[in-house]
Task: inverse folding
């Protein structure tokens, strides 16, 4: 029998979809700023594997020579990014939804089992509530990263006024590196996130817009069986 | 929406589960599409908004310039004007001091004829020679010079604190004004500074770099070192200093950058 199962609160959906375009604008305008001093690369043993960023990439996205424009956009949308983040964190704390989000002691061990399951190496995934162990870690990490972006961002933005933030971040220079690395982290998160959402399917995706999932519930039996029979093939619940 | 469902329950027979699902899908996806469309429209409006009317600032979309100015005002409410920038041992200072641009400081000039011109708000004009300035107590500063482009470099500068210069030559009343403007002798480069930043205890009229007279390309004979601002405000080769209550013109603020550009 089909049943509507509430999954995501309106506040969570709001924050998610507000954050998406804002973060996109922050990354886009951030690239305008980074371009003006694009000194980072991944170099190991004298060989440069990746240079951030190659010219074709800059030209494709029309990035060169837009530093002032990038700063103007970045320093406007930083407000929305931060306020949306603060609202989400306060809501999650006050509503108690953090219990479904924050990793538990067993989450770190279980996340590995979830990974094996997702890679089709292991048949069974650990039982879960709203989020599985890997999701708990990923979605909490992304919030921590958001806080990190705000702190490192402020440290770069006003290193004299927020000298204590610059100090926490290991200095102005290092704060800029962390700020950049966090952005790469978002892009990495995004790629995995999209793949998982596609794999998890429509029911899961809909829940982030309409708030509910449709689940099939077995009609309750009148007499309880003596031994509970576990269905080996039963999925541990919807993913993502 | 739950209320709605309950109300309907009383009036007519209960919706089937599929009807409920369809109904909630319709409402939520319509809302999502409308809000998404509105957000996209808002973005299009901002992205295509006209440039500000050129004046003291120029080159930025008008709403973004308003946001820059409002952000500056909001932050300055909580900022302290007494935070000192971090200083370093001289051994850490760069030997090859980075040089980015020659705007306003590449015109040929007779260094012996150089004078520092000071325009008071009263209309009074003063002139100083480099020796007069060097006779004041020297302050040395090893700090991390920060460029708006994103690089920073530890540099070792020496000169007279601007506030010492003001006090010594009896210009204290001028600090009651809101701004200080500085221009190169050829007027090719110019900056506007808010007074609290200008009289910050680490703001120098510098005449030494790495304990030597400042080389030509770094702004010989006298340049501004203002560590609470990005490099774009650190004017090379000061020709004129003007005290004013109006924002003085500023080279990079006319090119779309934030007027304040403070750190």
Result:
């Amino acid at each position: 029998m089909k049943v509507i199962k509430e999954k995501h609160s309106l506040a969570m959906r709001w924050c998610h979809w507000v954050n998406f375009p804002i973060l996109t604008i922050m990354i886009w305008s951030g690239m305008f700023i980074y371009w003006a001093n694009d000194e980072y690369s991944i170099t190991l043993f004298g060989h440069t594997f990746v240079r951030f960023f190659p010219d074709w990439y800059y030209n494709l996205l029309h990035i060169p020579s837009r530093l002032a424009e990038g700063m103007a956009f970045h320093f406007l949308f930083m407000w929305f990014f931060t306020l949306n983040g603060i609202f989400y964190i306060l809501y999650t704390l006050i509503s108690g939804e953090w219990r479904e989000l924050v990793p538990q002691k067993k989450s770190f061990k279980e996340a590995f089992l979830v990974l094996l399951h997702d890679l089709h190496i292991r048949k069974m995934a650990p039982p879960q509530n709203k989020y599985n162990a890997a999701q708990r870690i990923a979605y909490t990490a992304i919030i921590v990263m958001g806080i990190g972006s705000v702190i490192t961002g402020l440290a770069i933005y006003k290193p004299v006024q927020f000298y204590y933030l610059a100090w926490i971040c290991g200095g102005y220079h290092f704060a800029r590196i962390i700020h950049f690395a966090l952005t790469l982290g978002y892009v990495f998160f995004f790629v995995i996130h999209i793949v998982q959402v596609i794999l998890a399917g429509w029911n899961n995706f809909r829940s982030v817009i309409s708030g509910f999932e449709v689940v099939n519930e077995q009609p309750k039996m009148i007499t309880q069986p003596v031994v509970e029979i576990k269905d080996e093939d039963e999925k541990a619940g919807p993913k993502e | 929406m739950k209320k709605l469902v309950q109300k309907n329950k009383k009036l007519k027979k209960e919706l089937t589960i599929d009807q409920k699902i369809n109904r909630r899908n319709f409402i939520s996806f319509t809302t999502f599409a409308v809000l998404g469309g509105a957000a996209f429209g808002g973005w299009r409006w901002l992205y295509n908004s006209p440039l500000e009317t050129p004046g003291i600032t120029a080159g930025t979309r008008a709403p973004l310039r308003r946001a820059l100015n409002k952000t500056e005002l909001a932050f300055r409410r909580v900022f302290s004007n007494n935070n000192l920038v971090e200083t370093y041992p001289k051994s850490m200072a760069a030997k090859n001091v980075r040089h980015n641009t020659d705007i306003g400081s590449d015109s040929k000039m007779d260094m012996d004829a150089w004078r520092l011109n000071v325009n008071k708000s009263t209309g009074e004009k003063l002139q100083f020679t480099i020796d007069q300035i060097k006779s004041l107590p020297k302050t040395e500063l090893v700090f991390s010079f920060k460029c708006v482009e994103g690089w920073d470099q530890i540099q070792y500068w020496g000169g007279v604190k601007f506030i010492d210069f003001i006090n010594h030559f009896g210009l204290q009343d001028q600090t009651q004004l809101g701004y200080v403007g500085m221009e190169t002798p050829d007027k090719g480069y110019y900056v506007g500074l808010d007074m609290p930043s200008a009289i910050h205890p680490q703001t120098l009229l510098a005449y030494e770099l790495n304990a030597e007279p400042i080389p030509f390309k770094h702004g010989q004979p006298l340049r501004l070192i203002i560590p609470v601002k990005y490099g774009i405000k650190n004017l090379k080769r000061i020709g004129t200093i003007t005290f004013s209550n109006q924002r003085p013109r500023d080279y990079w603020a006319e090119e779309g950058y934030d007027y304040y550009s403070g750190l």
Chain B has two domains: 2-47, 62-255. DSSP finds six helices and ten strands in chain B. The radius of gyration of chain B is 27 Å. The mean pLDDT of chain B is 91.
